[in-house]
Automatic annotation (TrEMBL):
It comes from the Archaea. Keywords: Membrane, Transmembrane, Transmembrane helix. It is a multi-pass membrane protein. Gene3D superfamilies: Amino acid/polyamine transporter I (1.20.1740.10). This is Amino acid permease. The keyword Transmembrane helix applies. The chain crosses the membrane at residues 20-42, 48-69, 90-111, 146-164, 176-198, 210-230. It is found in: Membrane.
């Protein structure tokens, strides 16, 4: 639905489903699960429940910050609106530019981490589980062959240009990607449960010694994941 407001001239082009898709995509629940799991593999002494509780407590100040700001500015909500309306327009511009730069620099890093921390290990693990050397080969090639990175980068640029040229394409694409992300997250969780059941009879390591330091380090990863949920 699109309409023109006489008071501001703003045009509404996004419906509730589109808003949900954008926020859900920003949250990235699959990454919120995979990143802590990947880091936890290097912190065997960490207590996951304790790390999650510490991370939740450390996220409370940010949560309350957004809550009180939304009470003060209930009709509009975004980091730019919050900062520009409370600290002035110049600070809002500084924030907006810093977000643009950080996203432009951060997204390529996150995309590469997805390959290193998620896609490649997943293909290798599936290959070992299913005794399929082709999957193992693909998992190795994803990190060793630069052609995959070049192809993926080119594809992302082309697709981003195409969907950005038309708002309807943009919102439709996000709807489909959100649907795939929901399905992928469910499949990932079910896959982890199934793989754990498959490996349990053959691999039962002794429980590692508890380490509060490692639990604290793992909690920082949970804080980063929770930030996306709170900010969205």
């Amino acid at each position: 639905m699109k309409f023109l407001r006489e008071s501001t001239g703003l045009i509404k082009e996004m419906g509730p489903l589109d808003a949900f898709a954008l926020n859900f995509s920003f949250i990235g629940p699959a990454a919120g699960i995979s990143y802590p799991l990947f880091v936890a593999s290097f912190l065997p002494g960490a207590n996951w429940i304790l790390a999650l509780l510490i991370g939740a407590v450390l996220s409370l100040p940010l949560l309350f910050n957004y809550y009180f700001l939304s009470l003060k500015l209930p009709r509009s909500s975004s980091d730019y609106i919050f900062v520009s309306r409370t600290l002035g327009g110049m600070m809002g511009v500084v924030l907006a530019m810093s977000l643009i730069v950080s996203f432009a620099m951060g997204f390529p890093v996150l995309a590469e981490l997805e390959v290193i921390m998620v896609l490649s290990p997943a293909m290798q693990l599936l290959g070992y589980s299913l005794h399929d050397p082709n999957l193992i080969f693909i998992g190795n090639e994803l990190t060793d062959n630069v052609n995959y990175l070049t192809l993926a980068t080119t594809l992302i640029i082309v697709v981003a240009f195409l969907i950005s040229s038309n708002s309807k394409w943009f919102f439709k694409t996000f709807r489909y990607l959100t649907f795939l992300q929901i399905i992928g997250t469910i499949v990932m969780v079910l896959g982890m449960v199934a793989l754990k059941s498959a490996f349990t009879p053959y691999y039962q390591p002794s429980p590692p010694k508890f380490s509060f330091t490692e639990s604290l380090l793992l909690s920082s990863v949970f804080v980063l994941s929770m930030y996306a949920f709170v900010n969205a």
